[in-house]
Amino acid sequence: MKKIREALTQPTPIPFPKSEGQSSVFEPLNQEIEVEFAERFTALQGKFAFCFDEKHLVKQFNELVVSQGWKKLYCIDADISQRLKGGLELLNDFKNLAGCDVAITGCEYLVARTGSIVMSAAEQSGRNTSVYAPVHICIAYTGQLVYDIKEALEGIKEKYGAQLPSLITFATGPSRTADIEKTLVVGVHGPKEVYVFLVDDKS
Predict the structure, then answer these.
(1) Can you give the pTM of this predicted structure?
(2) What is the rounded CA–CA span in Å between residue 140 and residue 5?
């Protein structure tokens, strides 16, 4: 124990000091962050739609619902339901979730570098909405875009302080697994399709 105490009082210098630090190990962003996210997200089989404003969001959303023939749309986020008002009925009773065609949520952030949606239990959508339905639609805004995961986590810590949500999850494209004879299967333990409607809120 004496030797350990002595060693702690005289720590050994870091052999590679430049390996420690706050600088990113990834390439810096070299295009618009919206484009970066869209490219990464669609490369992972996600489906992306850019909306110039909320009126454009409602138009594109309604056209998608009609073209896909979806009937049961589930959304418990009152703010999103209000924004999407346009003649479509959005179910908000939890008992409807298991049998719905589509579940609609918001998010905390979108991570451009990985094409990920960051969600938490503190959102009105809660823990279950994004994983139960065969189709997940996320409504997000350009102000929620960050480049890297670190920025998303720092933003959540700043937003909630000591009251961090009990669940923070990163959804990167549709659910998938290759556990079955190394064959990629989509939609095993989550949605088969994931849509992101990104609304421009810079104006």
Answers:
(1) 0.81
(2) 53
